[in-house]
């Protein structure tokens, strides 16, 4: 009896103290992204944005397509859809975001430029890293590059009409790593006379280059970074080595210096941090480059309006003789490792809290 009373006393005492609530397991970036509603919205230029998800090779590929309403197929559900055939007249700019997905949600290519619609794809990875892994180790690069290709070739025509012979590409940070390391060497053979803008990221080909003799002489590649780029991307295996590797591919495939410089260009003149091409920040910097995309990648004069000092804004400098990019120290306190590539400001913007 006495033991029962002592036990009851302990139970009562424990009940008198506030109990700690069990913490909910932290959601992955992919899980948080799934809570951001999909559907149909209006772009900055009045185009319609379709946000949806489709399975590609067993991977969930969430996409946004921004185009005039009449370019969408009726099956898309977009109001005003009028296309009856996937064969249209508009080109397509496919953008792969950086680690964490920020540019997917911003969609900096949503406005039509040079008769080219915008498409962004969300990485099918719990961290929203294109190619998986982290830093320069993109362990799922082959599968992700194949999924991007198969979405463009097989899934996109089901919802929008476009000119399949006028598809160009944009990479941002980790998206540029997938583009330069895996997509260009493995999949660019499927996109004759294309162009790729590699913003704040790049690496030499990580897989065997398919049909380089066809691809290299007809693919325009622009490498864009800043003077205060992350050490990870300044170093071995990253942007400078990518410039050298692609230039060598040009030489190996019989291109003259003039031909290489016409196709492959590089610039890191702005004094910004990672992707801060305007000298201000990641989001505004990426938007600055995409606003002038057609000027750089589609036959314009190569000038980007709003680049940070001391840049003149002219970015189309041929790679031959300009491989040795000059970098300076990053701002004090700026982290210098792979974590610095991750930008998830969209989490706070979506109301999930956090400090990204």
TrEMBL record:
Signal peptide: 1-16
Presence of keyword Signal: yes
Keywords: Signal
Highest taxon, organism lineage: Eukaryota
The protein's name in its UniProt record: Alpha/beta-hydrolase
Organism placement in taxonomy: Eukaryota, Fungi, Dikarya, Ascomycota, Pezizomycotina
């Amino acid at each position: 009896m006495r033991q029962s009373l002592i036990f009851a006393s302990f139970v009562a005492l424990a009940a008198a103290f506030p109990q700690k609530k069990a913490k909910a397991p932290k959601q992955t970036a992919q899980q948080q992204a799934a809570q951001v509603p999909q559907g149909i919205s209006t772009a900055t230029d009045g185009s319609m944005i379709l946000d949806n998800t489709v399975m590609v090779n067993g991977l969930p590929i969430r996409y946004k397509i921004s185009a005039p309403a009449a370019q969408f197929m009726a099956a898309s559900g977009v109001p005003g859809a009028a296309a009856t055939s996937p064969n249209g007249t508009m080109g397509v700019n496919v953008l792969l975001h950086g680690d964490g997905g920020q540019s997917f949600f911003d969609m900096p290519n949503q406005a039509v430029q040079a008769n080219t619609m915008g498409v962004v794809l969300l990485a099918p990875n719990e961290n929203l890293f294109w190619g998986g892994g982290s830093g320069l180790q993109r362990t799922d690069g082959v599968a992700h590059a194949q999924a991007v290709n198969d979405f463009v070739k097989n899934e996109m025509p089901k919802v929008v009409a476009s000119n399949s012979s006028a598809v160009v590409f944009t990479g941002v940070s980790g998206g540029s790593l997938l583009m330069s390391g895996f997509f260009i060497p493995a999949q660019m053979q499927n996109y004759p006379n294309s162009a790729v803008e590699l913003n704040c990221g790049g690496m030499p080909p990580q897989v065997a280059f398919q049909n380089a003799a066809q691809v290299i002489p007809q693919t325009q590649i622009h490498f864009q970074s800043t003077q205060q780029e992350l050490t990870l991307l300044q170093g071995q295996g990253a942007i400078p080595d990518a410039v050298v590797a692609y230039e060598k591919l040009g030489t190996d495939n019989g291109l003259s210096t003039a031909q290489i410089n016409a196709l492959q260009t590089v610039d890191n003149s702005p004094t910004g941090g990672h992707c801060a091409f305007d000298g201000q920040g990641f989001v505004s910097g990426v938007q600055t480059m995409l606003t002038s995309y057609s000027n750089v990648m589609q036959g314009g004069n190569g000038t980007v309006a709003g680049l940070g000092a001391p840049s003149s804004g002219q970015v189309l400098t041929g790679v031959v003789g300009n491989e040795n990019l000059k970098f300076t120290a990053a701002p004090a306190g700026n982290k210098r490792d792979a974590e610095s590539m991750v930008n998830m400001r969209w989490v706070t913007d979506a109301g999930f809290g956090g400090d990204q």
